[in-house]
Amino acid sequence: MDYERLIRVARGEEPADLLIKNAQIVNVLSGKIESGDVIIADGYFAGVGSYTNAGRVIDLKGKYIAPTYMDAHIHIESTMLTPAEFARAVLPKGTTSTVSDPHEIANVFGIRGIELMLKLSESLPFDFYFTLSSCVPATHMETSGAKITAEDLERLTLNPRIVALAELMNFPGVIFHDREVMAKLKLAHERKMIVDGHSPGLLGNDLNAYLCGGILSDHECTSVEEAREKLKKGMWIFLREGTTEKNLLELLPLVNDFTMSRMCIVSDDKDPVDILEVGHLNASVHLAVRNGISPTTAFRMASLNPASYYRLYFRGAIAPGYKADFQFLHNLEEDLLKPLAVFKDGKMVAENSELIVPISSPTIPEWAIRSVNLNRQLSADDFKVQPSGSKMRVINVILGQIFTKGEVIEVDGMRKAVPDPTEDILKLAVVERYSGQGKLSVGFVKGFGLKSGALASSVAHDSHNLICVGTNDNDMAYAINQLARLNGGLIAVNDGSIIGAVPLPLAGLMSVESATETARKLTLLLRAVKEKLSSSLDNPFMSLSFLALPVIPELKLTDKGLVDVNKFEIVSLFES
Amino acid sequence: MDYERLIRVARGEEPADLLIKNAQIVNVLSGKIESGDVIIADGYFAGVGSYTNAGRVIDLKGKYIAPTYMDAHIHIESTMLTPAEFARAVLPKGTTSTVSDPHEIANVFGIRGIELMLKLSESLPFDFYFTLSSCVPATHMETSGAKITAEDLERLTLNPRIVALAELMNFPGVIFHDREVMAKLKLAHERKMIVDGHSPGLLGNDLNAYLCGGILSDHECTSVEEAREKLKKGMWIFLREGTTEKNLLELLPLVNDFTMSRMCIVSDDKDPVDILEVGHLNASVHLAVRNGISPTTAFRMASLNPASYYRLYFRGAIAPGYKADFQFLHNLEEDLLKPLAVFKDGKMVAENSELIVPISSPTIPEWAIRSVNLNRQLSADDFKVQPSGSKMRVINVILGQIFTKGEVIEVDGMRKAVPDPTEDILKLAVVERYSGQGKLSVGFVKGFGLKSGALASSVAHDSHNLICVGTNDNDMAYAINQLARLNGGLIAVNDGSIIGAVPLPLAGLMSVESATETARKLTLLLRAVKEKLSSSLDNPFMSLSFLALPVIPELKLTDKGLVDVNKFEIVSLFES
Lengths: 576, 576
Prior knowledge:
homodimer; nine-stranded mixed beta sheet; 29 strands; globular
């Protein structure tokens, strides 16, 4: 950064690169909308005030200039897009920066996966920051593609785009001071790194214990009471508005003079259809404003606050010396959804919702698109269940939530423990995808409402084995075999044929196609599932993807079996 | 820090060191007063909630527990006390931490002076942080005891108690990108250090230019308008309430929901009488509360906010994992001035305004108490002025301000340019104290109101040469000679005899006696000056100390001559 030129430009001694006249400035530092001129040089704001000297002038004629958005917590893998395609999708919506925990790819490829995300997100007109995945694998009750130790993480701590130890989901590991978890905390604190939290429902003295590990934030609050306790005990609260987990409106009443400096608006998990059709943080800011939050407050929680939390200074506001990442808006109401123009590092990158700069994706290495390793074809027999007791544990999916409820049913009513679509009792299977052996575990699930066929996915948090839900064993075997052939993705089959698929060959998590094409395929897939298989869920693949996640209560299925998350142990399918 | 024990204590599995029952908690994170128990282990808060298991229990019976204070900007040297004596004075008033720019001693001894302050502040029940003096000497228009370059500062950046590049007073140096100033900024930004600002009255495009240097704060605002512009351009605003510079009440109207997270209450310069008799930050917090600021907001600006600004995390609030620095208060009104007890790192250090732990001062090295080097006795002749024009520049002292006004008077009315106490025109001299040659410059000043005698001081910002104001040349020479004999300090003489003195042999800036004894001598000195010399100022030595500071407008006197600060150049005493 050439401070001297910036200083000369600020004093009007040298022409700015760009002068924006007659702007209404959304000032997240003062909380006011202020009139003035803004000048830019070398990608930074040099001054706000009254200026004339510039190489290029834009007269805003009273329109708004606002900071662009930084998403403090989003998993790029969940968007199914490469970093380049993600940037292409969200830049026109006013997002110019994200902080991501690459723990999906880290569970598949380990440190090599994190390094790949760093590589794939280089040299783009977008700031991709990452956090160091702290829980790979999430638990010992599943098979992941890799294991990451504190020593593995150490060499990455010096990378300037690594800004924190990622969400410490293994909160029992903190509370019961697991050796490996404590080693990672020690590393983070020695390096003066931020430690992100993840502690759904954790309150009281257990929350105190978790915080004693030096945990700084939470994005899992689902009620004002939970968020209030966490805030008053020192956590930053991230208001999550994702494709399925939507907590923003619930938590807005907590935003006040004391708390607003320690809250961020984040998305966590967003699918590409949601991003392209509804929006990214612009849609969440719009939602907050429509629900009574002042525009300056809403912007602050999506610009200055994320930057402050991650100690990325001189970002997230329109002020001298700050990075010139900004957008033009016609108004601060409906048009929040459609920025007139978006600038990154002082250069226009999008106009009228269209990207106007070229974005080229770096080459994806061959190993990264060969991550589903299944050396055998599965058959219907692999999915058979022999009852060994009179009572069976069933997973209950809760609409719009990633936690489940465990239920025990009498198997007398199910002659051989087979799916019963009329009662919405379906079979669920998780197939280990790394060793090639194709070992699997089978359970039962309620809440999908499929009437026929099967769905399978290689997106199955956090180990990303192959997960499948179905009404019959033949379709389940076929779905898994076809998914392996695609090198991963989302697939729906019915009566032995594919009715829709989104190939996600990059780590079995991300598409190598464009955002538009990926969204188009996802839309078709979801429509086919709804129309042909009669699923009752809006996005059954999103629900499916969380059924193997043994850090979120209550009953889950991994490749090693059924997990009682509250007991943190594997339990049998049948109770005697 | 033993995280594992803290976590066990938080869960109630192991007894805490201390349990505080039935507390009303001043929560600066939520802005509320909350009821609960607080437990402490190993000097940290382990939990807030409901607890029973502890080695020691204090039942507060509904009294308040609040964080202790951190002063984000104070010059320890200005208190005239060693760090140990300063800690002794302010611990009973609820201050447990300070961030100081040691630039007074740095101007006298250079890097060696900063290292001495680090050494003298070790191993005390108090957290002394320092910033790296950025402007030594403040300008080229004076002789200081040392010069500090960016290279000199570099090795100190790794010290964990060094938290910032100190107040960048040389704002013209930034605006006109002085080579040495830019080198220091570069060093700070490379090391990701905070850069404190100091820019009285700087506004508009010049302020923009200054901020482009990456400056983060200002403690020199004297009006709401000035502070509002600085805040909205990204600066943190420090509300200063010192012994002479009092800006808190003027700036309080700026405290609102958007700004309160970026404001701190600081003292900058406080004399020992003020500290012992009125108070430190406790008095400023009390003043803010009396003037309508909520107690939680006032506390936040003197605890959590300073810690956040200096990136000293897990400090400044009563929350799990935070450092257990706290105080008990009977109420949040008058008794803010008298904490019932003060705890540092979980241990009680003061009770009922009395220190209850031993504080021993480290030995002061011999070289540090021999800093006034005058190899000759001055005589009255040294102070004579020969008029060389018909108009003479006179410095006008402004009551309660550190800036002055320049005035031009006709010398016809003063036969030989001599002091005229009836018109309150006194002689001012600055004697260079480092080389031994005793070179001096002489000027005239209005506003002291002395009727006889002379005052001299080795505290003369920022180069700390010997400064003297007097009604006659004999007393001025005597005052300087006696001051040199004391190795520095404050002295008042009348008709050839000393009527009061505060010896400050440590760098000519600090007393080696106790806080009480230093304050007693200062009180006696000020009383003698008022009664015997009829000074019209409350603390003429404080005013005197700023008359040699050529970075604060408008007309000042250094050992090299009269300085027109606005022109930033030396001007002649007489206009032709």
